[in-house]
């Protein structure tokens, strides 16, 4: 009798132990990773970073996770920033890594080690939805056939793309290498050189446009907006800018739903708040800050939809969600959308100097929110110096993927800093903006040349040799160049930059 009882106690203990282990198992599973990447979203464009446009979903993300105050994208424009994010190597190491036209070829080496490729090697299903801007194909692109190589050659199982930017042709979506909704009888042709087709262009017929241009952007008219470059055909496949956020968000949601049973990586690259800013009528006119503000409200809605989907499927605990941006903010970026006129008291770069295109802090210091309830305490902030250049290695480590010597060459495993567990982060960080700048602790060194100032590409100041040095601890707005008083530090930072370049 006693023996029976002790046997059943033992059995019960064993069963409850097994049960406890099974219950703990999900926490030990590598998390899903969702990277929501805004376009041209400035540090101050998010309400919880001081912005005056309401962003309730982003604020909630921060309230449930970690808000970084010194996080940087790798470059002050799109293509080099995204190249660095996915390859873990600085764009200056690659070829054709500046802002690319819509018919550019893939600039990342197929089959090389990349962020998605490493995660895929660790068993993740990987997908990219939204803005690509890293080129497609490896010769003249036939937009009417299978377009390859593309995301599938660098580790993405699934793609649904805006091939370049909203202001560049072709204005069509590409899913798994094919233009979506293309009618074979109406083939697409794209040119960035000679004019093709006989449709009117923006330069000649501004009366046909629903948004006038201030610089460039005056070629083929699609949906009443003239673009960079020429395209003919593909009428049925052309996107409607007002629906773009809905279209790509629904693809992001579907990707999560299709893959909810196994670990996945979703790179959701929104087009907001890049030009042309043409938010859906649900958002147009809602913020009082014009299309730029309304596009920000739309982006915030997209974030909410992703979070809602994760919650609906019980994935919100063990999914690492990161929100950030590819470069700093810009106001007039080529279309007359009243971004300046309706700015009001909103400060897109917050306290940082300049924005997109700039070597000053506003060029690369971007909002960065990280949420992962299974590991990150709610409502925390981190002042650690962190860079997107490290995300490839850090997320590979998180997933349990190996990183071979000589791959992801500039990317360090900075996972603890990314998750807020290490409060110092990197000791130095290089930034690209038509030349380089370097952060080292509180110091910021800006190499000589013409540097974009203010929030538009057409304001430039001259930085003379040997470059400018700012002490961000006492001068966060980079107003007082202290290079001459700190000649030795300037030399040391110059040689560190040289070492990084020659690495
Ligand atoms: C510039 C465009 C700008 C924007 C930028 C790329 C003009 C005058 N300006 O050349 O509108 O498209 O390229 O932005 O055409 S990024 O965020 O994709 O890098
Ligand atoms: Ca951008």
How many distinct beta strands? Answer: 22
Please give the oligomerization state of what you see: single chain
Radius of gyration: 24 Å
Ends distance: 74 Å
Q: Shape from CA axes? A: globular
- Low-pLDDT stretches are 1-27
Please state the structural category.
alpha/beta
Give the strand content.
Answer: 15-25%
Helix content: 10-25%
Bound molecules: 2-acetamido-2-deoxy-6-O-sulfo-beta-D-galactopyranose, calcium ion
* Average pLDDT over all residues: 94
The description of the largest β-sheet is: 10 strands, mixed
Q: Total helix count?
A: 10
Strand order across the biggest sheet? 7-6-5-4-12-1-13-14-2-15
What can you see in these coordinates?
Helix content is 24%, strand content 17%. It is globular, with a radius of gyration of 24 Å. With 503 residues, the protein is of the alpha/beta class. Strand 6 and strand 7 form a beta hairpin. It has a ten-stranded mixed beta sheet, sandwiched between helices. It is built from ten helices and 22 strands. Calcium ion binds next to loops.
Give descriptors for this structure.
503 residues, 10-stranded mixed β-sheet, 4-stranded antiparallel β-sheet, 22 strands, globular, binds 2-acetamido-2-deoxy-6-O-sulfo-beta-D-galactopyranose, binds calcium ion
Task: Give a short synopsis of this structure.
The protein is an alpha/beta fold. The chain contains 10 helices and 22 strands. The strands form 6 sheets. Strands 7-6-5-4-12-1-13-14-2-15 form a 10-stranded mixed beta sheet, with helices on both faces. Strands 17-18-19-22 form a 4-stranded antiparallel beta sheet, with helices on one face. Strands 3-16 form a two-stranded parallel ribbon.
